What does this fold into?
Amino acid sequence: MALLPAFFLLAIALLALTYRSASRVIDEGMQSQFQQVRNRLQLNLDGYLNDLSTLLLTTAEHPRLASLMSTNDDTAASQLLQDMLQKQGGENLDILTLTRQGQYWTDLNSPFYSLTQSLGRLTNSFPMYDRWSWLELETTPMPLNVLVHRYPILSPLSGQVVGSLLGGLVLNDNLTLLNLLDQGIENFSFQLILQGKPVGPWYNDGALPTTVRASALASRLPSGQIQDYYFSRHSLRLDGEQKQLQVLLLTDNKAFQQLQQAYWNNTLLALLLVLIAALALALYTLKLISSPLAKLTDFAERVSSDQQAAFKPGHIKEFNFLGRSLEQMVEGLQHKKQDLANLFNTANSATIILDNNERILALNPAAMPLFGQAKEMIIGTELAQHFSTEQLYPLQQAICRARTGHKVSDVEARLAPSQEHPRHQLWTLAPIFENEVVTAVQAQGQDITRLKQAEASLYLNGLVLKNILEAVVIFDHSLRLTYVNHAYTNITGYTLAEIAGKSPSGVLHIENQAQELQLLWQTVHAAGYWQGEISGHRKNGKRYPLWLSVTALRNNNDEISHYVAVFSDISMLKDSQSQLQKMAHYDLLTGLANRNLFSKRLVQYLGQAEQQGNSLAMLFIDLDRFKQINDSLGHQAGDELLKAAAQRIQGHSRKEDILCRFGGDEFILVITNTLSLQQARGAAQRIIDAFASPIRVRGQNLYISVSIGLALYPQHGMDEAALMQNADIALYQAKEKGRNQVQLFDAEMNTRAISLVKIENELRYALEQNQMELHYQPQFSLQDGRLAGVEALVRWNKPGVGLVYPGDFIPLAEKSGIIVPLGNWILETACRQLHAWQWAGFYNIRMAVNLSAPQFRQFSLAGNIADILRELALNPDLLELEITESMLMEDMDIAITTMTELNRLGMHLAIDDFGTGYSSLAYLKNFPVRRLKIDKSFVKDLASKSGDAVIVSSIINLAHNMGIAVIAEGIEYESQHQRLRQLGCDEGQGYYLARPMPATEMEKLLQQESSRLLTGKEQRQ
Amino acid sequence: MFISRLLACWLLTGMLIPVQVSAESPEYWSLQEYLQTFPEQKQRLNSFSERVRKPALPREWPGERPVHIAMIYPGEQISDYWYRSQQSFTARLKEIGVHYALESHFFRPDTALREQERQIAEALKNDPDYLIFTLDAQRHQVLIEKIMARGRPKLILQNITTPLKRWDGRQPFFYVGFDHATGTRLLTEAITEMTGGQADYLMLYGTRGYISQARGDEFIRLTSTLPDFTQRQAFYTDINREHSTRAVLQALTTDPDINLIYACATDIAIGAIDALKILGKEDDIILNGWGGGSAELTALQQGSLDLTVMRMNDDNGVAMAEAIRLDIEGKSDHIPQVYSGDFVIIRQNSPAAELERLQAYAFRYSR
It folds into this structure.
């Protein structure tokens, strides 16, 4: 590579020499080119002038010209000249003058110039014939340089010269001449010069600067260079003679520039070649030494990768010497390395070597179990991969310090638990120097796992003893206190300071210490432990039960070294047991016996009565309308009322009687040793009378009555169940008969009860056997007669009986509870029918379904309906649920919740039998109601009773004002229909309009309605 | 019409500049060649043509000094082309608000050259800013070059749209005229459309020379790619009405299948009409005119001629006025080197109103 500049300089020197000689050649070439251009100009000039000469000669020799001249016919002569001008080349002639007998005769000179005054000079200045001469004419506005040829005009007969023809051209603005001269010449500008003065315009090929032109003209040198232009001055001949006509040629030095460009290119090329040559040389040198270098490199690589290596000598002895020296050095190093490796590998402590990036460079066999991985997997990994962040941090701190050349000890760090039981190490970190620079860090770890485990165990034990709820007291073999925990102080109130060094009796504070402790220690010594419930007293003197266990601890020599007493305060446990006992037998609210205790005691009394032949009276007591009070005043008030009622009943019972709260607002009083029915009645009546006065609850007097059902033992039942059932039946009767009274059970009552059960079973069976069916009563718009919807009405198709109407079984169903599944069946069946009609193309029919009170109170009602609607993809807008006013009012909270939920689902609600209950429109504001159904009792006498009409009208108007639609039911006559229409009732239903009908008949009606609408539309259309 | 005659005159007298518009003439560029060689000129020409077509846009600041214009025309002719040119030129100058002093010299085409030179010298004595001149004799070229050598005045060469190559680098100020090749191309397109690309045609040249080349040979060149376009016969008529009549009679006698006659000039077309009337074949053969002069328009209305290409005559005068206006406003880079006035194709069925409108437009300043 060092040869490169030398090559470079050589190349430049050669180029400079070549350039100089080539410049000389170009200068000569340039002169030669100027000469060639000059020759071409001369050629063009000669040709041009020859053409003109020929034209002039032809005219001068025209046979008529001499005769015309002799006859002095200048007009005809002018015409002849005119003809000449029209000929090829004639256009170049500015001067055409004829002389006659040595004098001017006529001319056809160009009027473009003012030649008239110069005619004399023109004709007299050319004595010679047949040659081109130039002349400067003093004309205005400027002198003219003219080039003129003169021809003699000879008499054809005598040969006498009778005149002459002068033809010529003005040079001053003769661009045409220069255009002709320029033919075949490129890249040259020129200027004609006559007697050293420029004549005619510059002929400028390209943009020649005026300054250059002026400088070239002013120059006295025949040739030279001005700026980037070359000029050269040459003589031109006229008629083969030098006549002071010159041409100044100018050209830009494009050729020179091209040469320079070429030499630049060549220089670059040469430099490139030199560089290539130098590179080739370098490559050759590299090739020469590459083989021995490769051997050395190979040797070094093998050594570095711990492979068996021997240097193979080559042709260059210097490299061989170097190789052998390296070999010896490696051998020495390997010995040292082996020694160190032995030291490293046999060490008991885990040792890791880390590089500056905290990567593991090496580890000894003792370190490998810590990682739980093969060595190959560990080498090269970062330390951070093996330690959790919090463990790594102190280690990294220590590594940083070790890198600064310090040794750091006692750094505790645990490897990330790749194993089930992590190991703990205490690390010592020391720098490893290479050329006094820390290149690695050695970490040596001491396994302290066992130490850590013991430490943890101790800590845990302490923690347990400290936090345990049981008191722990430890005595030494001589029963001196050695330890008490916090719980001891918490339980007994004594602090450690107060009991330090005391004996067990001074520590445990057990009642009847002498006896108890004696027995205790005897047992401990005999069996090794004692446990049991004993009574102790606290520091404040209060007694408390405690559960104590005492264990004797023996040492390795099987001698008792310590006694451990553990005890806990079990007073809360004792209280809980007592409370549970109470709760199991008594009603928490009233303190009366609960059903459980009642049953137990009743069984006892029944047994006694049976043995002793006594009578018993069972009074089933129920508070009348308690639910309304509870709902209106709240549960707390209800609870207070119950408590007060219980006290009143209790006030009229004897101690030996059994009084229990049976549940809700129901109480049972069993009067033992009843003497007679009258006595029992009397007792019951007294209880009823006891409620005649109001009960004060929360500052207000509440009047509440009770109803009582009475059954006697043994007349009305021999056991608890029979007595309770019959007393309940009697209570039902009492309620039925108007409440606030006592009813004695009789057998007839029992028969009715049995009938109710029977009907319930029949209804359940009927539902299972699909004996129920739905009929649909159409509902019409009273304004246009359009079928607006149907109301689903249930029928019981009882085998052997026929259709049973809802009035005959729904109240029973409501009582028995079968109403809920029945109601759900009605709802689902109606929805499926609506779905079927929609499939059949009757899209806008509305379905009204009645909900029963128990059904309405179901929390799952809304969810059930939503499921059905979703399954059938029904528009909820088409389903209308009818409920009664009383359903709303009896349980308003539930009603609002349920109605809101139904409304949220998109369903609408209608109030059925409106007018029979509360008849208050105001409350409807609270509910999302779409429609009111005016009860049929108002419709019945609508036409006859004006009062009813007023009521109906008010209902309709008020409902409309609240945005609620109105439907009337029970329309049986035309008059009712008309009246309702007049009153603005929206819709109606009733036998007059259509009876309830099975689904098949309803479909026909729907089809008729559909056709009617279609026809109506067509008619409208 | 007149231009045709004038050019024919050049040919007949043998003094026509060796104009060559066919491809690659060593001395001239055809307009199309020139625009292809100097693409920036095409852009200039388009916007300048728009300027010419539009109504005058008066100058906001008329110059204080009147522009001196010398006009030397072979205007003493039957054709009113030169006269109308001057009319439209001066009218436009007035409209756009260019103050001018015009010195007009009209001479007959056969005026002796020296007399023409005298008029030029006379005009130049007043040192005009612009000289409007034409180029129809070799001596004219010499004189133009003398003026160019002097550097003043600026030269507007009228009735020539083929710039001289020898003046490359020092072209005169402005060439203006109606480009024969452009007119021929429009006419060819209309004829091709009318014949549906299928014709056996008779070519009626003018004299042997420029007109015949620019209008006749160009037509042949443009239709040579149409497979069903066949030239059956061709005649040189010397732009002579009777020669044309005879040529048509002869051709149709020997070649009755001819269905198209292409006439290179108005007189030729009129001669052809005479022949077709004799043969009663006016309706069978398509015949064109060239130039849209009044004789052709009359023939069109009478149904003797099928179509012609009409020059918008006053475009030339307007163009010169606009070029001068741009020059004095220092916007010489808006002036194209060459301007060719618009042509419009007129057909036999062109409505009379349309013809009137076109005539009104063509002679919008020189009515």
